[in-house]
């Protein structure tokens, strides 16, 4: 069984086919996906910009993270759940799209970037928490995060119009 045949099977499931051919289900789910992305992306961008020292330099990084990470996780969860439904309704299109593959790779890289940041640099946040200028590794993580998420959004829009 090939990956393509699995995608065909998924796409032909009655509920997935129903989403794709419904006049309202796909647009509603796509809107939920966009709202989840927004709910995740803005708090992430604010934290990244704080790491770069460009916003809220008077606030400790740990405080900014504590305030915005719950929004990030809520938006991320909503985005992933709705994205899986969208994928299932267009699995063959996604399989054949370089934009989809690039988006998935970038999502993996974004997760890896966050994981490395939180398990290395952020563990020592007490030493630099109140500094307006964060360590270079924190700045690098923030800059990479911003660039990666711009790529994810660009690939998602390209996929929608391909």
Question: In brief, what are we looking at here?
Answer:
This protein is an all-alpha fold and 162 residues long. It is built from eight helices and no strands.
Describe this structure in words.
The protein is mainly alpha-helical and 162 residues long. It is 80% helix and 0% strand. It contains eight helices and no strands. It has helices spanning 3-11, 14-21, 25-51, 61-89, 91-95, 98-119, 125-128, 136-161. It is elongated, with a radius of gyration of 18 Å. The mean pLDDT is 95.
| Major beta-sheet overview | none
Order of helices and strands: HHHHHHHH
Which whole number gives the mean pLDDT? 95
Strand proportion: under 5%
Q: How many helical elements?
A: 8
Helix content: over 70%
Structural class, by secondary structure, is: mainly alpha
Point out poorly predicted stretches: none
Radius of gyration: 18 Å
Subunit arrangement of the protein: single chain
Number of strands: 0
How far from one another are the termini?
27 Å
Morphology call: elongated
Task: Provide keyphrases for this structure.
162 residues, mainly alpha
Secondary structure elements and their pairing?
Elements: H1 3-11, H2 14-21, H3 25-51, H4 61-89, H5 91-95, H6 98-119, H7 125-128, H8 136-161
Helix pairs in contact: 2-4, 3-4, 3-8, 6-8
């Amino acid at each position: 069984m090939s990956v393509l045949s699995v995608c065909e099977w998924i796409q032909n499931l009655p509920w997935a086919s129903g989403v794709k051919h419904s006049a309202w289900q796909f647009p509603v789910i796509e809107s939920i996906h966009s709202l989840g992305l927004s709910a995740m992306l803005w708090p992430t961008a604010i934290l990244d910009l704080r790491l770069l020292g460009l916003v809220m330099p008077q606030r400790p990084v740990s405080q900014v993270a504590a305030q915005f990470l719950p929004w990030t996780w809520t938006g991320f969860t909503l985005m992933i759940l709705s994205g899986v439904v969208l994928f299932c309704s267009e699995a063959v299109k996604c399989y054949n799209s370089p934009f989809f593959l690039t988006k998935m790779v970038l999502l993996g890289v974004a997760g890896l970037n966050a994981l490395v940041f939180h398990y290395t640099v952020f563990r020592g946040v007490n030493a630099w928490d109140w500094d307006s200028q964060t360590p270079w590794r924190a700045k690098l993580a923030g800059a990479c995060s911003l660039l990666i998420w711009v790529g994810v959004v660009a690939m998602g829009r390209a996929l929608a119009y391909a």
